[in-house]
Amino acid sequence: MHPYQDTSLPIEERSKDLVSRLDLEEKISQMVYHSPPVERLGIPAYNWWSEALHGVARAGVATVFPQAIAMAASFDDDMLNKVASVISDEARAKHHESVRQGDHDIYKGLTFWSPNINIFRDPRWGRGHETFGEDPYLTSRLGVAFVKGLQGDNKKYLKIAACAKHFAVHSGPEADRHSFDAVVNKKDLYETYLPAFKALVQEANVESVMGAYNRVNGEPACGSDTLLKKILREEWGFKGHVVSDCWAVCDFHLNHKVTGSPEESAAMAVKAGCDLNCGNTYPALIEAVKKGLITEEAIDNALARLFATRIRLGMFDPQDKVEYTKIPFEKNDHPDHHKLSLEAARRSMVLLKNSGILPLNKDKLKSVAVIGPNADDPVMLLGNYSGTPSYTTTPLRAIRDALGDTARVYYAQGCDISKDRVEPLAMEDDRVAEAVSVAKASDIAIVCLGLNSQIEGEQGDVGNSDAGGDKINLSFPGMQNKLLEKIVATGTKTVVAVFAGSAMDLTYADDNADAVIQAWYPGPMGGEALADLLLGKSDFSGRLPVTFVRKTEDLPDFRDYSMEGRTYRFMKNDPLYPFGYGLSYNSYEYSGLKIDKDVVKQGESVTVSIKVANKGDVAGYESVQVYLKDVDASVRVPNYSLAAFKSVYLKAGEEKEVSLVVDSNCMVVFDDDGSTRFEPGLFEIYAGGSAPDSVSCKLMGGSPLKAEFELK
Question: Which of 55, 481, 560, 660 has the greatest count of CB atoms below 10 A from its CB?
Fold first, then answer.
């Protein structure tokens, strides 16, 4: 037995021993995402690239959950943890079955490049729906819960290896990501772009971090001494491995022009701390060593971190010693997992407007029109980075099933998702007249509009996009606006359900429709979730994890990474629908706000307690939110910031007292150099069902409760 096979030895010792037994060519072969076997040492072939954004993706049938931005709308870190635990169960089950079949292909490993914790700073960014929204605190709490669910709680072995991506200042433009330089000042860097990554590294012990495509202040993110050395490893103490985004390293010489050859690019990345190459540039390390651009010792250090991850996953240990190998294949796509996906979909949808038309009374409906390009499209349900569900329920199918024989359900596509006609040889608006007819014949029209993953998403994956996956503006594409106007003009009561991963321009819908729902990309059971909510079988509980601005013109330049005027924390114009906002059928009443101290010393936390009562007729979840405002700051601080939240289940008529802790980290101010300090002064705490801004107070019909403390 070699030392690397001795399970009693420390992982670092085992990993270094294994590296020492490889020659240079073998070492470098193990630093590329599709690592070949080294049979003489019992190293099997391994492909590092697997995806688990909202379910095991691209590896065949698996349970698919709502897209990440949708799950963020639950404001429920416990639910995110449960979802991630299910994902890792299925990941293990599928991986070991693949190995038993001799299948070591891509997407079938145990290193999953998820979650995406970039800050969704601008609603035009196409990949924003992969994130947990615009707020650093919400993103960090949900991200920590998700990573812990993925990686498990075994003290010796990882269930799977999670990856925090894309480190660290990355949110478009997609079309220019291979050459773009994201310029950011240190205050915004440390105040907004880094906190979630820091939390995942230091609290969740995330095993891997992925760099971004773009440069950050002139340095390519996957070769940045500032990001990968100074911040990630030296400041935060990260011990895991770093992987490049796919084909990002070759951008160094091809697009960023910071190096002149593959050898220089590979050497730059490894020396900065990027251990694994998703791409084909690291084979040039052989020549780079010969040219003296990098030492073999640097390669050894990088490879040791990679083998340490594989050892933590149990890949070189007897399988009967690794508890996770016992998860049976039958766990995959299990009916219990489908139930959790349906529950997550119900919890994610946000009721933005309700004139009183909802919930629908099934006994009084005689006819319903289900209209729109997203009414019967199973692709729309899934979002990007999705697995293959074993079945789907579109809104049309689910509403038909829910109503049964009690009401006639009409259907009309109305228009294409992005084109001006459905049939290529037809005239413009070739499906609008049909939609008008079915609306006129119905008691109510449910209009399903929005986007899908072929329009909004990652550059290269979005064939119908006008901006490489991003949005040029917030308007609905194609003829969707016109379709909605025609339906509203019939006089039929209209419910607008928006299936999209980002904020759209909903001013017309807000002014003219009877109800508006943000349904996101809700997963394969999304249609059933919508039907349950429309008919009052479940109550709406989702809250917006992003701000819905009134119009595109309210946004700063998309390419500007300054936080001035961005997100609820720094914006100056009133939004249409604020961060943290969402209606329900119930009325929740807050009372008895208390904080455990009026004077807080530096480094102390504050415990907030508040009573919340369900005054409605049905059980439901309420998202209790706590916001903090620094009143006396001498530097720029957010308008107010989310500082704690908790999802509380209340039966009809039930009251609970909820305690939440505001950590001292929420009380620091960030100076221009990115450093933090405690500054004496007055703080306001707001607790309730929404943020304390004037728009939220107007829409919710009341204000959060307020308390104050002094920081000394």
Answer: 55
Decide if 97 is catalytic: no
> Which residue out of 76, 245, 430, 470 is catalytically annotated?
245
Query: 609, 580 in Cβ contact below 8 A?
Result: no
* DSSP element (H, E) containing 411: strand 408-412
Catalytic residue (choose from 122, 174, 264, 456): 456
Quick check: is 122 catalytic? no
DSSP element (H, E) containing 571: none
**Cα 690-692-694 angle, rounded to 5 deg:** 105
Q: How far is it, in rounded angstroms, from Cα 130 to Cα 663?
A: 27
Give residue 263's Cα distance to chain centre.
Answer: 35
Structure tokens given for 177: 């990501």
- Residues in a beta bridge with 409: 368
Q: What whole-number distance in Å separates Cα of residue 460 and Cα of residue 309?
A: 30
Chain position carrying tokens 């809700």: 522
Query: pLDDT tens digits, residue range 21-37?
Result: 999 999 999 999 999 99
Is there a contact between 219 and 236 (Cβ–Cβ < 8 Å)?
A: no
Measured distance CA(577)–CA(579) in Å, rounded = 7
pLDDT tens string 107-139: 999 999 999 999 999 999 999 999 999 999 999
| 405/457 Cα distance (integer angstroms) | 39
Say what the pTM is. Answer: 0.97
Instruction: Note whether 622 and 656 are within 8 A (CB).
Output: no
Model pLDDT, residue 249: 98
The tokens describing 193, both together, are 């772009």
User: Over the range 364-392, which residues count as b (16 or more CB within 10 Å of their CB) and which as e?
Assistant: ebeebbbbbbbbbbeebbbbbbbbbbeeb
Structure tokens at 7: 């399970």
| CB contact at 8 A, 341 and 66 | yes
As given in the structure block, the two tokens for residue 169 are 């200042």
Banded pLDDT at 612 (limits 50, 70, 90) = very high
Separation CA 248–CA 278 (nearest Å): 8
The three-state (H, E, C) secondary structure of 252-301, written as one string: HHHCCCCCCCHHHHHHHHHHHCCCEECCCCHHHHHHHHHCCCCCHHHHHH
Hey, what amino acid is at 78? Answer: D
How many Å apart are CA 472 and CA 106, to the nearest integer? 34
pLDDT of 169 over the 70 cut: yes
- Phi then psi for residue 684, to 5 deg, are -105, 135
Residue 102: the pLDDT is 94
CA-nearest of 612, 555, 606 to 586 is 612
- Measured distance CA(70)–CA(59) in Å, rounded: 22
395-403 vs 526-534: helix crossing angle, rounded to 10: 50
